[in-house]
Amino acid sequence: MKKKIILFTLIGFCFSAQSQIDPVIKDLTRFNRPTTSQRAEVSQKIGLDFIKINYGRPNVKKRKIFGGLLEFGKIWRLGADYQTIIDLQNEYVIKGDTIPKGQYALYAIPNESNWILFFNKDTKGWGQYTYKPENNLYEFNFPVEKSPEFTETFTIGFSNTSLNNGEMYVQWENSRIKIPISISNNHRKEIEINYSVALGLNEKSIGYKYYLVSEYLFLEDKNFDKALIYIQKAIDTGNIAFYTHFLKGEILLSLGNKKEAVRSAIEAKKNLWPNFSNPEWENKIENAIINWEK
User: Fold this and answer.
1) What residue spans of the chain are helical by DSSP H?
2) How many Cα atoms occupy the beta-carbon half-sphere of 73 within 13 Å?
3) CATH classification of 200-291 is 2.30.29.170, yes or no?
4) Tens of pLDDT along 101-116?
5) How far, in Å, are 60, 119, 209, 227 from residue 244 at the CA level?
Protein backbone atom coordinates (compact mmCIF):
# COMPACT_ATOMS: atom_id res chain seq x y z
CA MET A 1 0.00 0.00 0.00
CA LYS A 2 2.82 2.37 0.89
CA LYS A 3 4.46 1.72 -2.50
CA LYS A 4 1.25 2.70 -4.31
CA ILE A 5 0.98 5.90 -2.27
CA ILE A 6 4.58 6.79 -3.06
CA LEU A 7 4.05 6.05 -6.76
CA PHE A 8 0.88 8.17 -7.00
CA THR A 9 2.59 10.95 -5.05
CA LEU A 10 5.51 10.92 -7.49
CA ILE A 11 3.18 10.98 -10.50
CA GLY A 12 1.23 13.84 -8.97
CA PHE A 13 4.47 15.72 -8.35
CA CYS A 14 5.53 15.24 -11.96
CA PHE A 15 2.26 16.61 -13.36
CA SER A 16 2.38 19.51 -10.94
CA ALA A 17 5.99 20.29 -11.78
CA GLN A 18 5.25 20.14 -15.51
CA SER A 19 3.38 23.42 -15.36
CA GLN A 20 6.05 25.16 -13.29
CA ILE A 21 9.21 24.51 -15.30
CA ASP A 22 10.65 25.73 -18.55
CA PRO A 23 9.61 23.08 -21.11
CA VAL A 24 12.71 23.81 -23.17
CA ILE A 25 14.92 22.48 -20.40
CA LYS A 26 13.06 19.49 -18.99
CA ASP A 27 9.72 17.73 -18.86
CA LEU A 28 9.42 15.48 -15.82
CA THR A 29 6.44 13.54 -17.22
CA ARG A 30 8.21 12.42 -20.42
CA PHE A 31 11.80 11.59 -21.27
CA ASN A 32 13.81 14.44 -22.76
CA ARG A 33 13.76 14.09 -26.54
CA PRO A 34 13.43 16.19 -29.70
CA THR A 35 9.77 17.06 -30.26
CA THR A 36 7.72 17.34 -33.43
CA SER A 37 7.20 21.04 -32.78
CA GLN A 38 10.54 22.11 -31.34
CA ARG A 39 10.55 24.77 -28.64
CA ALA A 40 12.20 28.12 -29.25
CA GLU A 41 13.00 31.24 -27.29
CA VAL A 42 13.33 34.72 -28.76
CA SER A 43 14.13 37.91 -26.89
CA GLN A 44 14.48 41.58 -27.75
CA LYS A 45 15.59 44.48 -25.62
CA ILE A 46 13.29 47.49 -25.89
CA GLY A 47 13.95 50.35 -23.52
CA LEU A 48 15.80 49.14 -20.45
CA ASP A 49 14.73 45.51 -20.45
CA PHE A 50 13.92 42.44 -22.52
CA ILE A 51 10.76 40.95 -23.93
CA LYS A 52 11.16 37.15 -24.05
CA ILE A 53 8.93 34.58 -25.74
CA ASN A 54 9.01 30.82 -25.28
CA TYR A 55 6.93 28.88 -27.82
CA GLY A 56 6.48 25.70 -29.84
CA ARG A 57 7.19 25.82 -33.59
CA PRO A 58 4.98 23.55 -35.69
CA ASN A 59 5.61 23.06 -39.42
CA VAL A 60 3.20 23.39 -42.32
CA LYS A 61 3.97 19.88 -43.66
CA LYS A 62 2.04 20.50 -46.92
CA ARG A 63 -1.17 21.24 -44.98
CA LYS A 64 -3.50 24.20 -45.37
CA ILE A 65 -3.03 26.07 -42.10
CA PHE A 66 -5.34 29.09 -41.87
CA GLY A 67 -8.89 28.18 -42.75
CA GLY A 68 -7.78 24.54 -42.68
CA LEU A 69 -5.84 23.06 -39.76
CA LEU A 70 -6.65 26.24 -37.83
CA GLU A 71 -10.31 27.08 -38.38
CA PHE A 72 -11.17 30.74 -38.69
CA GLY A 73 -12.88 32.06 -35.58
CA LYS A 74 -11.48 29.36 -33.26
CA ILE A 75 -9.07 29.89 -30.35
CA TRP A 76 -5.44 28.87 -30.94
CA ARG A 77 -2.54 28.62 -28.49
CA LEU A 78 -0.29 30.64 -30.86
CA GLY A 79 2.16 27.79 -31.27
CA ALA A 80 2.18 24.13 -30.28
CA ASP A 81 2.25 21.98 -27.13
CA TYR A 82 2.95 23.99 -23.97
CA GLN A 83 1.61 27.50 -23.54
CA THR A 84 3.28 30.21 -25.56
CA ILE A 85 4.62 32.48 -22.81
CA ILE A 86 5.60 36.12 -23.21
CA ASP A 87 7.76 37.52 -20.41
CA LEU A 88 7.68 41.31 -20.16
CA GLN A 89 10.60 42.34 -17.98
CA ASN A 90 9.35 45.88 -17.72
CA GLU A 91 6.16 47.83 -18.43
CA TYR A 92 5.21 48.17 -22.12
CA VAL A 93 2.42 49.65 -24.22
CA ILE A 94 0.51 47.89 -27.01
CA LYS A 95 -2.18 49.83 -28.89
CA GLY A 96 -2.74 52.22 -25.99
CA ASP A 97 -2.90 49.56 -23.25
CA THR A 98 -0.15 49.64 -20.62
CA ILE A 99 0.79 46.06 -19.76
CA PRO A 100 2.56 45.49 -16.43
CA LYS A 101 5.80 43.58 -16.04
CA GLY A 102 5.15 39.84 -15.82
CA GLN A 103 4.45 36.62 -17.70
CA TYR A 104 1.39 36.01 -19.85
CA ALA A 105 0.12 33.19 -22.04
CA LEU A 106 -0.58 34.24 -25.63
CA TYR A 107 -3.65 33.07 -27.53
CA ALA A 108 -5.13 34.13 -30.84
CA ILE A 109 -8.30 33.78 -32.87
CA PRO A 110 -7.21 33.82 -36.52
CA ASN A 111 -9.70 35.17 -39.05
CA GLU A 112 -9.32 35.70 -42.76
CA SER A 113 -8.65 39.44 -42.53
CA ASN A 114 -7.70 39.92 -38.87
CA TRP A 115 -6.42 38.14 -35.78
CA ILE A 116 -7.58 38.72 -32.22
CA LEU A 117 -4.66 38.39 -29.80
CA PHE A 118 -5.14 37.72 -26.09
CA PHE A 119 -2.82 38.14 -23.09
CA ASN A 120 -4.03 35.49 -20.63
CA LYS A 121 -3.07 35.21 -16.96
CA ASP A 122 -3.06 31.37 -16.86
CA THR A 123 0.53 30.44 -17.74
CA LYS A 124 0.28 26.88 -16.36
CA GLY A 125 -2.18 25.34 -18.82
CA TRP A 126 -1.86 23.27 -21.99
CA GLY A 127 -2.86 25.47 -24.89
CA GLN A 128 -6.47 25.85 -25.96
CA TYR A 129 -7.41 22.66 -24.08
CA THR A 130 -7.23 24.52 -20.77
CA TYR A 131 -8.06 27.98 -22.17
CA LYS A 132 -10.63 30.03 -20.24
CA PRO A 133 -11.71 33.37 -21.72
CA GLU A 134 -12.32 34.78 -18.24
CA ASN A 135 -8.53 34.66 -17.72
CA ASN A 136 -7.90 37.07 -20.60
CA LEU A 137 -6.41 40.34 -19.36
CA TYR A 138 -5.86 42.15 -22.67
CA GLU A 139 -7.40 41.80 -26.13
CA PHE A 140 -6.03 43.27 -29.36
CA ASN A 141 -7.11 43.23 -32.98
CA PHE A 142 -4.50 43.17 -35.75
CA PRO A 143 -4.94 43.08 -39.53
CA VAL A 144 -3.52 40.09 -41.37
CA GLU A 145 -0.79 40.75 -43.94
CA LYS A 146 0.59 38.51 -46.63
CA SER A 147 4.00 37.38 -45.41
CA PRO A 148 6.98 38.36 -47.60
CA GLU A 149 7.77 34.69 -48.13
CA PHE A 150 6.28 31.30 -47.43
CA THR A 151 7.08 30.31 -43.84
CA GLU A 152 7.26 26.55 -43.24
CA THR A 153 8.04 26.79 -39.52
CA PHE A 154 5.84 28.93 -37.29
CA THR A 155 7.87 31.98 -36.29
CA ILE A 156 7.65 34.75 -33.71
CA GLY A 157 10.25 37.50 -33.92
CA PHE A 158 11.02 41.21 -33.72
CA SER A 159 11.69 43.84 -36.38
CA ASN A 160 11.91 47.60 -36.84
CA THR A 161 13.34 48.06 -33.35
CA SER A 162 14.69 51.32 -31.96
CA LEU A 163 15.71 52.35 -28.46
CA ASN A 164 12.18 52.50 -27.09
CA ASN A 165 10.00 50.87 -29.76
CA GLY A 166 9.71 47.76 -31.87
CA GLU A 167 7.41 45.36 -33.66
CA MET A 168 6.77 41.77 -32.71
CA TYR A 169 5.65 39.71 -35.68
CA VAL A 170 3.87 36.36 -35.84
CA GLN A 171 4.30 34.55 -39.15
CA TRP A 172 3.27 31.19 -40.57
CA GLU A 173 2.39 29.81 -43.98
CA ASN A 174 1.54 32.93 -46.03
CA SER A 175 0.15 35.08 -43.21
CA ARG A 176 1.65 37.56 -40.77
CA ILE A 177 0.55 40.02 -38.10
CA LYS A 178 2.68 42.80 -36.60
CA ILE A 179 2.32 43.97 -33.00
CA PRO A 180 3.74 47.45 -32.25
CA ILE A 181 5.35 47.69 -28.81
CA SER A 182 6.68 50.77 -27.02
CA ILE A 183 7.84 51.64 -23.53
CA SER A 184 5.35 53.04 -21.01
CA ASN A 185 5.51 56.43 -19.29
CA ASN A 186 6.81 54.78 -16.11
CA HIS A 187 9.46 52.96 -18.15
CA ARG A 188 10.48 56.27 -19.72
CA LYS A 189 10.74 57.92 -16.30
CA GLU A 190 12.97 55.07 -15.18
CA ILE A 191 15.32 55.83 -18.08
CA GLU A 192 15.38 59.52 -17.17
CA ILE A 193 16.14 58.69 -13.53
CA ASN A 194 18.95 56.38 -14.60
CA TYR A 195 20.73 58.96 -16.70
CA SER A 196 20.09 61.74 -14.15
CA VAL A 197 21.75 59.64 -11.44
CA ALA A 198 24.62 58.69 -13.76
CA LEU A 199 25.25 62.32 -14.70
CA GLY A 200 25.24 63.30 -11.04
CA LEU A 201 28.29 61.13 -10.41
CA ASN A 202 31.61 62.92 -10.74
CA GLU A 203 33.54 60.30 -12.67
CA LYS A 204 36.21 60.33 -15.34
CA SER A 205 33.72 58.88 -17.81
CA ILE A 206 31.20 61.69 -17.29
CA GLY A 207 31.92 63.10 -20.76
CA TYR A 208 30.97 59.81 -22.38
CA LYS A 209 27.80 59.63 -20.28
CA TYR A 210 26.82 63.10 -21.48
CA TYR A 211 27.34 61.79 -25.02
CA LEU A 212 25.11 58.76 -24.40
CA VAL A 213 22.31 60.90 -22.98
CA SER A 214 22.57 63.29 -25.91
CA GLU A 215 22.43 60.39 -28.36
CA TYR A 216 19.32 59.04 -26.63
CA LEU A 217 17.57 62.42 -26.67
CA PHE A 218 18.52 62.93 -30.33
CA LEU A 219 17.57 59.50 -31.66
CA GLU A 220 14.56 58.57 -29.55
CA ASP A 221 13.00 61.68 -28.03
CA LYS A 222 13.84 63.97 -30.97
CA ASN A 223 14.51 66.63 -28.35
CA PHE A 224 17.22 68.39 -30.36
CA ASP A 225 17.57 71.46 -28.13
CA LYS A 226 18.18 69.35 -25.03
CA ALA A 227 20.42 66.95 -26.98
CA LEU A 228 22.58 69.92 -28.05
CA ILE A 229 23.00 71.02 -24.42
CA TYR A 230 24.21 67.58 -23.37
CA ILE A 231 26.54 67.04 -26.35
CA GLN A 232 28.18 70.38 -25.58
CA LYS A 233 28.60 69.25 -21.96
CA ALA A 234 30.25 66.09 -23.27
CA ILE A 235 32.76 68.18 -25.22
CA ASP A 236 33.29 70.64 -22.36
CA THR A 237 34.10 67.77 -19.96
CA GLY A 238 36.78 66.37 -22.27
CA ASN A 239 34.97 64.02 -24.65
CA ILE A 240 36.29 65.37 -27.96
CA ALA A 241 36.13 62.07 -29.82
CA PHE A 242 35.22 62.17 -33.51
CA TYR A 243 31.84 60.54 -32.86
CA THR A 244 30.98 63.22 -30.29
CA HIS A 245 31.63 66.06 -32.75
CA PHE A 246 29.78 64.18 -35.45
CA LEU A 247 26.70 63.75 -33.24
CA LYS A 248 26.82 67.47 -32.49
CA GLY A 249 26.81 68.06 -36.24
CA GLU A 250 23.78 65.81 -36.72
CA ILE A 251 21.91 67.66 -33.97
CA LEU A 252 22.78 71.07 -35.42
CA LEU A 253 21.65 69.89 -38.86
CA SER A 254 18.31 68.78 -37.39
CA LEU A 255 17.98 72.27 -35.87
CA GLY A 256 18.55 73.79 -39.31
CA ASN A 257 22.04 75.18 -38.59
CA LYS A 258 23.91 73.76 -41.58
CA LYS A 259 26.96 76.03 -41.24
CA GLU A 260 27.71 74.95 -37.67
CA ALA A 261 26.86 71.35 -38.53
CA VAL A 262 29.60 71.32 -41.18
CA ARG A 263 32.07 72.83 -38.69
CA SER A 264 31.31 69.99 -36.30
CA ALA A 265 31.85 67.43 -39.08
CA ILE A 266 35.22 69.03 -39.82
CA GLU A 267 36.07 68.78 -36.10
CA ALA A 268 35.07 65.12 -36.22
CA LYS A 269 37.53 64.58 -39.10
CA LYS A 270 40.30 66.36 -37.17
CA ASN A 271 39.69 64.16 -34.14
CA LEU A 272 39.82 60.79 -35.88
CA TRP A 273 42.08 58.61 -33.80
CA PRO A 274 45.72 58.19 -34.98
CA ASN A 275 46.13 55.10 -37.19
CA PHE A 276 42.35 54.83 -37.20
CA SER A 277 41.15 52.78 -40.14
CA ASN A 278 37.41 52.60 -40.47
CA PRO A 279 36.21 53.34 -44.01
CA GLU A 280 32.59 53.47 -42.88
CA TRP A 281 33.21 56.33 -40.46
CA GLU A 282 35.70 58.09 -42.72
CA ASN A 283 33.25 58.06 -45.64
CA LYS A 284 30.39 59.07 -43.36
CA ILE A 285 32.28 62.17 -42.18
CA GLU A 286 33.51 63.11 -45.67
CA ASN A 287 30.01 62.79 -47.12
CA ALA A 288 28.61 64.91 -44.28
CA ILE A 289 31.10 67.71 -44.97
CA ILE A 290 30.10 67.70 -48.63
CA ASN A 291 26.35 67.17 -48.35
CA TRP A 292 25.53 69.22 -45.27
CA GLU A 293 26.70 72.36 -47.07
CA LYS A 294 24.08 71.95 -49.80
Assistant:
1) 2-18, 185-199, 206-216, 224-236, 242-254, 258-270, 279-291
2) 0
3) no
4) 999 999 999 999 999 9
5) 50, 43, 11, 12
